[in-house]
Amino acid sequence: MPESEAFESIYREHYPRVRRICLGYAGGNANWAQDMAQEVFIRVWQNLDAFRGESKLSTWIFRIAVNTCLVELRNARRGMKTVGLEGVPVPAPEESDPGKREHPDRIASLYRAIDGLRPTNRTIALLELEGVPQQEIASITGLSHAAVRTRVHRIKNELLKLLKDESL
Q1: Rounded mean pLDDT of 68-81?
Q2: How far apart are the first and last CA of the chain?
Q3: CA 157, CA 11: separation in Å to the nearest integer?
């Protein structure tokens, strides 16, 4: 398979999940998330020949996504990009997920709650929401599997509390 076809296949398979991860880092800002996802795949394309196969391809791509998003957040905090959650429109639901159409306010609340987590916990939460296995999350974050399991439990409780407080 030619290199460009291989990349297209990788892009089609992984773009939706990467975009949703970026959406979580972007606090629900769909345009910023799309920009970050595109940056992720530029880096994937540039470094595809350097992928050594020591982990799953998805693990490698998610690690690039997390690093790219963290760099973007740092740049935003330094004033290189202005991003605020106030007034951010709820992203248009994707046709492939009808459940998202039903509760856009809940989704926006969830993104705001996730946005309040510490960076590593935000990464864990977003990957967990994407259904990434906890062992793979451990590999992506550099934490032990036991630490990820513990954090997932604590993050769920923290998010539930934040969402409950927001609904009051």
Answers
A1: 80
A2: 55
A3: 34
In whole angstroms, give the CA distance from residue 112 to residue 95. 23
d(C-alpha 30, C-alpha 136), whole Å: 26
With a cut of 50, say whether residue 83 has pLDDT above it.
no
> How many CB atoms sit inside 10 A of residue 62's CB?
27
- Non-local (6+) Cβ contacts of 121 within 8 A are 151, 154, 155, 158
DSSP state for residue 52 in the 8-state scheme: -
Q: Where are the domains of the chain?
A: 3-167
pLDDT digits (tens, 9 = 90+) for 120-130: 999 999 999 89
Q: Please check the confidence at residue 114 and state whether its pLDDT lies above 80.
A: yes
* Nearest CA-CA partner of 107 in 29, 36, 2: 29
- How does the average pLDDT of the chain come out, rounded? 82
Answer positive or negative: Cα dihedral of 35, 118, 152, 134: positive
Eight-class DSSP state of 49: G
